[in-house]
Structures are given as structure tokens and as C-alpha cells.
Amino acid sequence: MRRIDEAVALGADKLSHAGIEAPRREARLLLAHVLNADVGHLIGHGEAPVGNGDWAGYLERLERRAQREPLSRILGHREFWGLPFRLGSDTLDPRPDSETIVEAVLKRFPERDQPLRILDLGTGSGCLLISILVERPRATGVGIDRSFAATRVAAGNAVHLGVAERSLFCVAIWMEALAGAFDVVVANPPYVRTDELAGLAPEVAEHEPRLALDGGKDGLNCYRAIAPDLPSTLASGGLAFVEHGEGQADAVEALLRQAGLSRFERLADLTGRERCLAAGR
Length: 281
Ligand SMILES: C[S@@+](CC[C@H](N)C(=O)[O-])C[C@H]1O[C@@H](n2cnc3c(N)ncnc32)[C@H](O)[C@@H]1O
Hints:
Elements: E1 2-3, H1 4-17, H2 23-35, H3 39-44, E2 49-50, H4 52-66, H5 71-75, E3 77-80, E4 83-86, H6 99-108, E5 117-121, H7 127-135, E6 140-145, H8 148-160, E7 167-171, E8 182-187, H9 202-205, H10 221-226, H11 230-233, E9 234-243, H12 249-258, E10 262-268, E11 274-280
Parallel strand pairs: 5-6, 5-8, 6-7, 8-9
Antiparallel strand pairs: 1-2, 3-4, 9-11, 10-11
The site of S-adenosylmethionine (SAM) has 21 residues, from helix 7 and strand 6.
């Protein structure tokens, strides 16, 4: 029978040959997942045996990772805003960059007990809406997605993260089926240019849902679709927070301005890149 430290060494070697950047760390995470243990346990018990069934499960997951399936998809969850979000094949794997939106909303609506009404357009795993609801315990929210499968994953995340009673997830095309005003609208729409999709890293190009990525010929289709309905969806004093790709800030701002939004602010991620626009009516 193999020992834990041997299994990690073999896995790290295999992942390193496949071009994975942090092979030892990922091998440990995969083995910990199979053994239903935490990584600290593995480090402290290197001599412990790995049973045959677990060994087979570990090899299978190593192979998937070596084929560049994203780690979060193999593990079935991803940490976002410090919370564990479950993923499905129809949800985008949430990016740390998108935490910029959560941070911006909390900063502009700092009162913890404010009964905010929140709309999340293209909710995916529900990561934006649910993170804000966790931080603002009297807020309520609606998450919209065109993908039924994504809304099911988001609703499941709302249950296990304790905000199900304050959230609703609906299948719709952006705001087409909506009436009502919201204090906060967050949106992280697909914004990759169609001709750029094939050139993305295999983890993204082959494993992320196309519906979550494809922004059309110039990457701006979804902003064109969303912008006209944004002003009427915002309550008085409300703010919209819209994520965009690198280099898209001017074009997205122009579309939102043309639709009647004002009071623009550009928000940068931790590395200083502009990634989000905030705007009001
Ligand atoms: C970039 S992902 C964002 C997911 C999640 N909000 C996040 O930040 O990780 C965009 C989401 O928009 C959804 N979507 C794409 N087209 C849509 C449409 N016409 N109406 C509603 N949702 C749409 C996709 O299914 C996907 O879940």
C-alpha cells in the first residue's frame, strides 16, 4: 500500500509534467479531498497508508487535473469571499477579481443592518449576491440567470450558506421579466470576444460554460442588452456595479452613460487593473 507522502510526491511529479504551476499543493488538495481530510492532516501523517479505493480515486482525479480540468471543478467547490461555493458544469468558476464588486458594494452601503434590495444579473453560482447577503443580514436579493442549471446551483449555495430565506433565483434573460426597483444591481456578464475564446487557457476554454464567457464579436453584447434597462431598475439613490474585462472600461461606461446612468466611478482589483464600474441614476 502507498503512503501519503509517496502519493503526494507521485502526484506532484505528474502535475508538474502537465505544466501545473503549484503541483505539490494541488496534489495535496486532491489527496485530501479523496481522503476526506484536511491538508494539515496529510502533512502531519505522511507515513499513513492510502487504501486501494482511495488510491484509485486519487489517480483518477490526478489524471483529470493533468488534462487541465480546473482544480475547483474536480473538488466541486471554490472559495469566494471566504465562503465555500459549490459549482456545477453550468456555473462559472468564480474569480477572485470579482470580489472587487462585493467590496465596492459593502463600502458604499456600509450600514450592516440596511434592508437593501439587491439584483444580481447573470448570477452563476450566486457568489456575488450570496456574499453580500451574508455581510448584510437584513438585505434581500434576486439572482437572474439564463441557465436553469446555474440557478439550481446558486439556490443550493444559498441554502448551505444560510441565506435561502432572503434570496430568490430565477431563470430569465437579464431584466426582461422584472419589475421593481433595487438599491444595488450587480452584474458580471460574459465579456470575452468570441474570437478570443479558443485562445484561452484550457482550464477556461474547455471547462467553463460558453454562456458565461461569450460576449459576442466585440465582447460588449451583454452590456448593450443590459444598459437600457438599468436606470429603471435602480431605486432612487441606488447604484449599479458592473464588472468588465481589461481595457473595456471606456466602452462600457459609454454604453451605460448613453442609457442614462451617471456618477461613474472606476474600481480596480488588488493588482490595480480597472475591473468594475459603479454608476447611479
Ligand atoms: C461571467 S458569468 C458570472 C457568474 C457569477 N456572477 C460570477 O461572478 O462568478 C455570466 C453569467 O451570465 C449568465 N448569462 C449569460 N447570458 C445571459 C442572459 N442573456 N440572461 C441572463 N443571464 C445570462 C451566464 O449563464 C453566467 O452564469
